[in-house]
Design brief:
This protein is of the alpha+beta class. It has five domains: about 150 residues, Alpha-Beta Plaits; about 50 residues, no CATH class; about 120 residues, no CATH class; about 200 residues, Orthogonal Bundle (Hypothetical protein af1432), CATH 1.10.3210; about 130 residues, Isoleucyl-tRNA Synthetase, Domain 1, CATH 1.10.730. The protein is built from 25 helices and 18 strands. The strands form six sheets. Strands 2-3-1-7-8 form a five-stranded antiparallel β-sheet.
């Protein structure tokens, strides 16, 4: 069976840069899935995308489907002749042409037929159409007088199977072998002889690098080289690099400059406007200070690059001037002077204004700081200033600078260093894996803000539902847990939630119910966190049963159980705990909490051995429990494996003597209580 390479390229107007690779991959995947469903084998698949084209090559695609054997089962040979004739007729043969097959139920007529595979070329047009129909395009457009709809106007279609054009028509385009080159360097059609020549023809004749990843790497190397020319290092944000790659077919890096006086503006403001608005890469020196230059990617090789550079410098200058103007204007006012404006900005219609939120956060943050033996006044002050920069001109123009500008303005006003730093740190962590607040004041404000939002929205019965989480409460809850655990803040989450919910005036759900719901919601975030650390759901559940309300304590217990689980004694002790748990639950009336074990009721050495082991190890681990050293405590409890195993081998717990039975259950309760100082390890037993 012959195998040939298959190429499809769809040429369009400039595609949305942020959706380019998604469209590229989806374009190929539907065709691949269709080939798989048809049973047509092929080799590697390579996908390509540039601003004006989506393409893929399927290597070594079989020229036809494999033949398929079809087997139809008919009536038994003992069936009436008319039934057999009807079956044969439906198969297009006579009774004599039917085969017979012995089965456990008897002999039956069968019909075997080999269905010849279809030519691949007969299936490809439909697969291409399906692929275009299924592309993830939220909003399609029409162009000209056509009723055809697509993400952008489509202008050409290449479909080659080996050297032959696959005859098809999609989006009103007739397939061929003609592609188009760069809009300025090669504004004409180019013939593609075979799929294997696709990249070469576009690069050598068309001034187009169709391979997105190769183009991305070329840009990265070129940007780094330009930065090195001025002794600097390019700041290359991956998302910006992806976007710039999707905007250029023939990228050329050029260095531009701006006036040094703009460097008086906070660097991040300049970086933000150059990256977000101009798609420029910025450059820093060895100390990380911003240099007065930028790197732009031109989509052509200019005969006069100085003109291109001058044009970019002319465009960026007003943007930088705006940033400088906003910064200078904002600096004329103290940060706290903006508090009155917050009284007119609604945080949430049932939860009041941003000013009221600031007051609530100040109360929570102050309490947190006090519990950490830190400066409560700093925490309260930082919280009251925390939303003020939202109404400054700089942040209104560049919302992504919220917090950072608050830091600069608070510093200018002479606020305490931690108060100023907390303006930026209040938003940390902003995303999974992001850095945490470095200061305790920043941590207190960040926690206060998150707990206020969580209790408020649960209090008005607006928790996340399904995939809907408009206030990002899941991310907020996980961020709060990370702060408490990773910064080792020994805080009681339930107590903080009780304080937070008491600050709200407009909630409609009972406060005690809000506290429990938010506490459960937040502790549930540990499940995914622990799974990311390689801890199974059983470990999470073993700790959750005890419901520790201090996140740091919760995490320490879970990690201790995880370490315990790897010990050779763990499986046996977990199984024993499960057995003990079942016995105690079934005989709850037979044992009173704290019931003393009587050695006089022991009837064998195994009972005495377990009792002595429990007494010894209990004294050994008591200080470890008190210090929260759960991992070491569980490790020392492994000495109980042998006496526990012997006990269950030699002792009948549920004996006839009621007093002896109750005494044995009390002994087992003492065993279980020791482990419950950390977690319910019975959950580790399958």
């Amino acid at each position: 069976m012959e195998h040939l390479d298959f190429l499809v390229e769809l040429g369009t107007e400039e595609l949305p840069p942020k959706a380019l690779t998604t469209l590229r991959d989806a374009f190929a995947q539907t065709v691949i899935d269709g080939l798989a469903a048809a049973g047509i084998p092929h080799g590697a698949v390579k996908t390509y995308a540039a601003p004006r084209r989506l393409a893929f090559i399927i290597e070594q695609l079989s020229t036809s489907q494999p033949d398929r054997e079809i087997k139809r089962s008919g009536p038994a040979i003992s069936a009436p002749e008319k039934a057999v004739e009807g079956f044969a007729r439906s198969c297009g043969v006579t009774i004599a042409e039917l085969a017979q097959e012995e089965t456990a139920k008897g002999t039956y007529y069968i019909f075997n037929q080999v269905e010849q595979g279809k030519a691949t070329t007969s299936l490809l047009p439909g697969l291409i159409q399906q692929s275009i129909d299924k592309l993830p395009i939220p909003k399609r457009m029409r162009w000209g007088a056509s009723r055809v709809e697509f993400v952008r106007p489509a202008h050409w279609l290449v479909a080659l199977f080996g050297e032959q054009v696959v005859d098809c028509e999609v989006l009103g385009l007739k397939s061929g072998r003609e592609t188009r080159g760069h809009r300025f360097h090669c504004n004409r059609t180019l013939d593609i002889p075979t799929p294997g020549s696709y990249l070469t023809v576009l690069k050598d004749e068309g001034y187009v690098l169709a391979d997105h990843e190769a183009r991305r790497e070329k840009i990265r190397v070129a940007v780094e080289a330009e930065a090195a020319k001025v002794g600097g290092t390019a700041k290359i944000d991956p998302s910006l690099l992806d976007e710039v790659t999707a905007l250029n077919e023939w990228p050329v890096a050029l260095m531009g400059r701006f006036e040094e006086h703009f460097l008086e503006v906070p660097a991040q403001a300049l970086i933000s406007t150059m990256e977000s608005n101009q798609k420029y890469f910025t450059v820093t020196d060895a100390q990380g200070n911003l240099l007065p230059c930028f790197i732009t990617i031109a989509n052509l090789e200019s005969k006069d690059p100085a003109q291109v550079i001058a044009g970019n410098e002319k465009v960026v200058r007003p943007r930088l001037a705006d940033a400088a103007f906003f910064f200078e204007t904002d600096k004329k006012h103290r940060l706290d002077s903006y508090q009155d404006k917050l009284k007119n900005i609604v945080f949430q219609k049932d939860l009041g204004t941003l000013f009221e939120k600031s007051e609530r956060v100040a109360s929570i943050a102050s309490l947190i700081a006090s519990q950490l033996n830190h400066n409560a006044d700093w925490a309260a002050r930082a919280a009251m200033l925390s939303k003020c920069d939202l109404v400054t001109q700089m942040v209104l123009e560049f919302p992504e600078l919220q917090g950072l500008m608050g830091f600069h303005y608070a510093t200018k006003d002479g606020e305490a260093e931690e108060v100023a730093r907390a303006q930026d740190e209040q938003y940390m962590p902003r995303f999974a894996g992001d850095q945490l607040p470095a200061t305790l004041t920043g941590a207190a404000v960040s926690l206060g803000d998150r707990l206020d939002t969580l209790t408020g929205l649960f209090g008005i019965n607006q928790p996340p539902t399904g995939s809907k989480d408009p206030f990002a409460l899941r991310r907020s809850a996980l961020g709060a847990l990370r702060i408490m655990v990773e910064k080792e803040l020994d805080l009681d989450l339930k107590a903080l939630l009780e304080h937070a919910v008491n600050q709200h005036q407009g909630i409609t759900v009972a406060k005690a119910e809000v506290v429990e719901k938010v506490l459960d919601f937040m502790l549930d975030r540990f499940k995914a966190w622990f799974e990311d650390e390689g801890m199974g759901a059983a470990i999470y559940q073993s700790v959750l049963v005890l419901k520790p309300t201090k996140p740091l304590d919760f995490a320490r217990r879970a990690r201790a159980v995880s370490a315990f689980q790897s010990l050779p004694e763990a499986e046996s002790l977990a199984a024993a705990n499960k057995r003990v748990s079942n016995l105690l639950s079934k005989n709850a009336d037979a044992v009173v909490d704290g019931q003393q074990v009587s050695v006089d009721l022991f009837e064998g050495a195994a009972e005495k051995a377990l009792f002595d082991a429990l007494q010894a190890v209990e004294a050994d681990v008591a200080p470890l429990f008190a210090a929260g050293n759960y991992a070491e405590a569980l490790k020392r409890l492994t000495v109980l494996k042998a006496p526990v195993d012997t006990f269950f081998e030699d002792v009948m717990v549920m004996c006839d003597d009621e007093k002896v039975r109750a005494n044995r259950l009390a002994l087992l309760q003492q065993l279980r209580s020791l482990f419950l100082h950390v977690a319910d390890i019975s959950h580790l037993s399958s």
